[in-house]
Amino acid sequence: xxxxxxxxxxxxxxxxxxxxxxxxxxxxxxxxxxxxxxxxxxxxxxxxxxxxxxxxxxxxxxxxxxxxxxxxxxxxxxxxxxxxxxxxxxxxxxxxxxxxxxxxxxxxxxxxxxxxxxxxxxxxxxxxxxxxxxxxxxxxxxxxxxxxxxxxxxxxxxxxxxxxxxxxxxxxxxxxxxxxxxxxxxxxxxxxxxxxxxxxxxxxxxxxxxxxxxxxxxxxxxxxxxxxxxxxxxxxxxxxxxxxxxxxxxxxxxxxxxxxxxxxxxxxxxxxxxxxxxxxxxxxxxxxxxxxxxxxxxxxxxxxxxxxxxxxxxxxxxxxxxxxxxxxxxxxxxxxxxxxxxxxxxxxxxxxxxxxxxxxxxxxxxxxxxxxxxxxxxxxxxxxxxxxxxxxxxxxxxxxxxxxxxxxxxxxxxxxxxxxxxxxxxxxxxxxxxxxxxxxxxxxxxxxxxxxxxxxxxxxxxxxxxxxxxxxxxxxxxxxxxxxxxxxxxxxxxxxxxxxxxxxxxxxxxxxxxxxxxxxxxxxxxxxxxxxxxxxxxxxxxxxxxxxxxxxxxxxxxxxxxxxxxxxxxxxxxxxxxxxxxxxxxxxxxxxxxxxxxxxxxxxxxxxxxxxxxxxxxxxxxxxxxxxxxxxxxxxxxxxxxxxxxxxxxxxxxxxxxxxxxxxxxxxxxxxxxxxxxxxxxxxxxxxxxxxxxxxxxxxxxxxxxxxxxxxxxxxxxxxxxxxxxxxxxxxxxxxxxxxxxxxxxxxxxxxxxxxxxxxxxxxxxxxxxxxxxxxxxxxxxxxxxxxxxxxxxxxxxxxxxxxxxxxxxxxxxxxxxx
Amino acid sequence: xxxxxxxxxxxxxxxxxxxxxxxxxxxxxxxxxxxxxxxxxxxxxxxxxxxxxxxxxxxxxxxxxxxxxxxxxxxxxxxxxxxxxxxxxxxxxxxxxxxxxxxxxxxxxxxxxxxxxxxxxxxxxx
Amino acid sequence: xxxxxxxxxxxxxxxxxxxxxxxxxxxxxxxxxxxxxxxxxxxxxxxxxxxxxxxxxxxxxxxxxxxxxxxxxxxxxxxxxxxxxxxxxxxxxxxxxxxxxxxxxxxxxxxxxxxxxxxxxxxxxxxxxxxxxxxxxxxxxxxxxxxxxxxxxxxxxxxxxxxxxxxxxxxxxxxxxxxxxxxxxxxxxxxxxxxxxxxxxxxxxxxxxxxxxxxxxxxxxxxxxxxxxxxxxxxxxxxxxxxxxxxxxxxxxxxxxxxxxxxxxxxxxxxxxxxxxxxxxxxxxxxxxxxxxxxxxxxxxxxxxxxxxxxxxxxxxxxxxxxxxxxxxxxxxxxxxxxxxxxxxxxxxxxxxxxxxxxxxxxxxxxxxxxxxxxxxxxxxxxxxxxxxxxxxxxxxxxxxxxxxxxxxxxxxxxxxxxxxxxxxxxxxxxxxxxxxxxxxxxxxxxxxxxxxxxxxxxxxxxxxxxxxxxxxxxxxxxxxxxxxxxxxxxxxxxxxxxxxxxxxxxxxxxxxxxxxxxxxxxxxxxxxx
Lengths: 819, 126, 530
Prior knowledge:
The complex is a heterotrimer of chains A (819), B (126) and C (530). Chain A has 819 residues and is mainly alpha-helical. Helices cover 70% and strands 2% of the residues of chain A. Chain A is built from 34 helices and 2 strands. In chain A, helix 5 (82-105) packs parallel to helix 17, helix 7 (135-153) packs antiparallel against helix 8 (160-191) and helix 14 runs parallel beside helix 16 (301-322). The longest helix of chain A is centred in the first third of the chain and has 32 residues, at 160-191. The model of chain A is unreliable at 778-819 (pLDDT under 50). Chain B has 3 helices and no strands. Chain B has helices at residues 3-21, 26-47, 72-103. Chain B has one domain (2-51, 70-109): Helix Hairpins (Orthogonal Bundle). Chain B is elongated and about 80 Å long. Chain C has 530 residues and is mainly α. Chains in contact: A-B, A-C, B-C. At the A-C interface, helix 7, helix 8, helix 26, helix 27 and helix 31 of A face helix 1, helix 5, helix 6, helix 7 and helix 9 of C.
C-alpha cells in the first residue's frame, strides 16, 4: 500500500467535490465555457484510472485509504478490482461527456454553476461508492448519491412535479439506504470487520448463519430501492423531471446502477443461495416485464427511455440472481452495453428536445435530414438496444440465453430456466421495439411542425451521444482487448473466481441455441414495433381500467401520513394546559405507585410513636387550611386558608427543632399571602370551579393517587435507616473548624455555600425576569398563527378587549374584578 | 418514630396541591403551587428524620450540639429551596397576572395563542 | 463520642475534615466558567442602561468562558475527570465540582452556542429588549447550564437547574408579544413542576442514602432498598424526562419554543433540553444502575415513541419553528434509545447525539430566524422562494435538516450509526427500527419544509405560483452578524461531521466513565469505606 495510491484514490472520489465547491465561483468568470473547464476533472480521473486496467487483468486488488475515525476503527478506504474499475471508468468516462453536454444544454441558464456543482458532487459520490472498501465509507457515499440526486431532480424547482419527484426519490432511495445501513452493521456484527476486502473470505460462513436471511433482506431492499426494482420502481420515471443531462447520467448510466453494483459487490458474500436466486430472479423478472410494458405505453421520449431503463435494471438483477458464469458475463456485458447505448439515447433525446422543443414522438418526424449527427448517434444507440451484432449488447444476449443450456443453481429445473429465458426474450423484444419506435418515428417519416425549427445543437450536445454510441460498437469489435482487460476481471470480481470468456464472431454460431433465441427476439421486436399503436392503446386502456398506480399509491401514503400526523399532533399538542398537566400527573402517580405495586409494606404498629397534643393540633390546623383552600369560593377565604396551612407548616418546623426554617416560612408565607392578595384584587377568583363533574372526578382521583404515592414512597424510605454521616460531620466540625454555632447557618454559608450563591443568582434573575415581564407593553408585533384572534374571556364574563397598552402600574389597568 | 404518621400528612399537601393545579383557573393553580412548595419542603424535612424539639445549634462554650439535636442538613436544603421556590412562585404569579391582562383570560383553556384551537391543517402539496 | 461533645479534647478527635493540599491552580478552571458567567451576569445587570457596552462585554465574557472550557476539556481528555470541592471540605461533605469528559464537552458546546447566539442577536436587537435584560439573562442562563454540567452534587444540580429555569423564563417573555406570554404560561408551569419533581426525588434520595454527592451516591446506591430506589429513579426519570422533552411529557416544548425571538429559541433548543438529557445520563446510568432492570422497558418505550411520534409532529406543523421543535424532540428520542442500551456503544451514541443536538438544533433555529426575516412570515405556507433569494441560507438549512435526519456525511449521522450498532449488538430490533424510521420520517418532514420554503417559488395556494412578493433581502447588519454567526456555527458542524474522530473519542471515553464510575469517583476523592 503505497502512499501515492492512497492519495490518488482518495482524490478520485474527492476531487469532484472540490471542483463542485469551485463551480459556482468559476461560472462567474468562465460563463458558458464552464462545462469545458470542469470536464477536465472527470477526464483526468478517467485517464488516471485507465492506467490500472492492465493490472486488473491479472486479477490484482489495490487497496488504499486513510485512517478516518481511529477511535471507532474506521478507515476512509478504497478497494479497486475489476468490478470497481469498470464502474469507475464508466462513471468518469460518461461523466466527462455529460459535463460537456450539461454546459451546452443549460447554456445561459442562471444556475448553470449550481447545476454543474451538483453534477460533480454526484459524480464524486458515485466514484466514492464504487471504489469504497470500508462499509461505512460505502454507505456515506451511497447516501450522498441520494442527496445529490435529490438536488438534481429538484433542479427545476419551480414546478411542483419536480419537487415531488425529488422528495419521492429521496424518500425511497434514502430510506432504502437505511435498510442497507442496518445490513452493513449486521455484517460488521457478524464478522467484526469494517472492510469489504477482508469480509469476502467469510462469505460461506456468513451464508450459513441463522440471520443470513435478515441480512440478505436488508441489503436487497437497499439495492432494489436504488435500482428501481418492482415495487419501488416508480420513482425512476418521475425522476425524469430533472434536466436531461441528469436523466442521461444518473438515471441510466450511473446512480440506478449503484444498486446493481451493490448486488454484484455482495454476490461473493451473499450470493449463490436459493434465497438469493429466488429473490433476485423473481423481482428482476417482474421489473423487466413491467418496465418494458410500461415503456410501450409512453410517447414521451424520456419516459420511454426511463421505463426501458427500469426494464434493463430488472434484466441485470435477474442475471446476477442466476449467478452462473455465463449469467455474470452476460450481466457485465449488458451493463456496459446498456450504459453506452442508454446514455447515448438519452443525450439524443435531450438533443432532439433542445433542437425541436418537444419530446413527444407523435409530434416528431423526419429529423434525419435536419439533425444528421444526432441521427447517426441514434442509430448506434438503437442498434445497441436491439442487441445487433457488432455491439456489446449482442454478446450480452448471447450469454444470457445460454442460461437455458448451462447448469446453475437450478441445473435440473429446465422449466425454471425456460421461463426465465422466455421472460428475457419478451423483455428484450419489447425494449427493442421501443428503441425502434424512437429511431423510426423521430428520424424517419414526414417532418412535422415543431415548436422550434429543428436544428443540430452544438458540438457538446451531440459529441457525447456519438462517442458513446461509437464505444458500444468499438467494444463489440475489439473483443480480445475488451474481454481480457475489462470483461473478465469484472466478472471475476462478481463470480469470485477467474472467469474466461470466449467472445468471437463465427458462422458456426448462427446455429447455436443462443443465437436462434436472439434472432427470435429480433423478430418479436419487429412484430411488436409494427403493432405498437394498438399495443399502446390497449395498455393505456388497461392502466386506466386499473385506476391505481404505484405512483398514486405514493401520494396516498404520503398524504395519509401527513393526515395521520395532523390528527396525532392535535391529540397530543392541543394547547390545553390542564390536559398537559393531567398527563404529567398521571406519569407522576405512575412513577410513584408502579414500583410499589405489590411490594409495599406498612411498618409495625409498635414503630409508630404517639404524638403530643401540640403536634396533633398543628396537623389538624394544616389539614383544615388545605381543605379550605381547595373549596374556597372567594378570594378572602382562599387567601386566609392558604395562610393557615402555611403558618401551620411554619409551626411544624418550629415544633421539630427547626426555628430558622419556621421563621423563614412565616416570612415567605406572609409575603405570599400579601402578594396574592394584591394580585387577586385584579385577577379574580372564579366563584366556583369551572370544571365539569367528570373532570373533577378525574382530577380528584389523580390527586389522591399522587398523594398516596408520595405517602407510600415516604413510608418505604422511612423504614430504612438513614446514614447520618454528613450531619454527624457537620455537628463535629461546625464549631472547631467552621467557627459557627448555628449548624444550619454554617451549612448555608460554608459547607454548602455554593448552593447559597446559586440561590442568590436565582433571586437576582427572578428580579430581572419580573422586571422584564412588568415592562412589557401589550400590542407588540405578533408572531405565530392565529395570533390576531383574541381569545374569549372566562366563561360567564365578558371583558372589554383593551387595545391600548396595558400597564401594571395602578390606574391604567385598574379594572374592577367583577366578582 | 413520629415520621410514619407524617407521611400521609405530606401526602395530603400533595393531594390538595395537585387538585388545585389541575383546575384550569390560573389563580387556583398558583394557590396549588404555593401548597405544593410547602409539601415538598415538609417531605425533605421528614426525609431527614424527625427528632424532638432541639434545634441544631451548638450551645455557647460547647464544641458540638446535643445528641438529640435535629438533623441540620435538610433544614439548610429547605432554606435554599424555600427561597428559590418563592422566587419562582412570584414569577409565575406575575406571569399569570400579565397573561390575564394581555390574553384576557384566566382560564388556561382560553390561552390558545401559541397553539391555536383551529390551527391550520398541513397543506397536501410538495 | 458520648463524652466528647463537651470535652476540651474534642478537637483532637475530629475526623479528617479538610483537604490538606491547596486546590491546584489548574482545578480552578472547573468553577471559573460559572464564576465568570455569574459575575458577568451581575455586572451586566448593573450596566443594563448603558447600551453600547453591554453586547461587547457579554461577548467578551463568553469568549473567556470558552477559553477556560477548552482548556478544561483538553485537561480532562488527557488526564481523566477533574474535581474540586468548595471550601476544601473533604468530599462528600462539601459541594464538589467534577468534570468528566461529557460534562466538559457539553459545557463547551453550550458556551459556543451562546457565543453564536449573542452575535446573532446583534442583528435582532430592539433597544427596549436590551434594557430588559437580555444580556444578563443569557449570562445567567449560561451560568445555570454550565453549573449543571460541572457540578458533582445533586442538590447543587437542582440549584443550577433553577438558575437556568428562571433565566429561561425571563428570556421567554422578553419581547412581550402576547403569544410569548401564552407560551410562557405553559412553559412556566410545566417546567416548574419538572424541577419540583426533581426536588421531591432529591428529598427521597437523601432520605434513603443520606448523601448528595453524585460520586458518593454511585457508591452507596447499589446497596440501597431496591423498591425505594426504583421509585426514586422513576421520579428522576419523570423530572428530567420533562426537562428533556421526552414523549409523552414534552408538551411544553412545542407550545413555547416558537414564541420568543429566533435567537432565544436557538439558545433554548441548544441548551435547555440538553441539560435534562445530561442529568438523565448521569442519574440513569451512573447513579442508579440498580433500578435499571425495572426501568429499562420504560426507557425503551419512551425512546421508541419519542423517535416515532416527534417527526410526525414536525410533519403536521405549518409554523416553521414549531415544526423544528418537534425535530428537537425527535433527537431526544435518540438519546433515550442510547440510554436504553446499556452498552458503551449505545451510551456513546446518546452522548454523541446530545452533543450534535446542541449544535445542530441551535443552528436550525438561527437559520429559521433568517428565513423568517427574509420571508417576513412564520408560517411555512406563507413562505417560498428562499432558494432563489439566498444561497447561504439554503445551503445551511439543507445541511442542518439532513444532519438532523441523520444522513451522512453530516454530524447527525455518526450518533445514529452508534445507536444502530448498539441496537444490533443487543438484538434490540424495535429500537433499531425506531432509530432508522426516525431518520426517514425526519427527512420527509425536513424535505417538505425545504420544498415549501425554499424550492417553491410562491406561497401556498397561489395556483400559478407567482413569485413570493414579500421576500426581502437581509440588511448588512443581518448579513454580517446574524447570517455570519450562523455560517460560523454551521461551519463547525460540517467540520465536526467530516472529521468526527475527536467527538467519537470523547463520546467513547465519556460513556465508559459513565458506565464504570471508578475514574469519576476517584477524581472526586471519595474514599471507599463501608
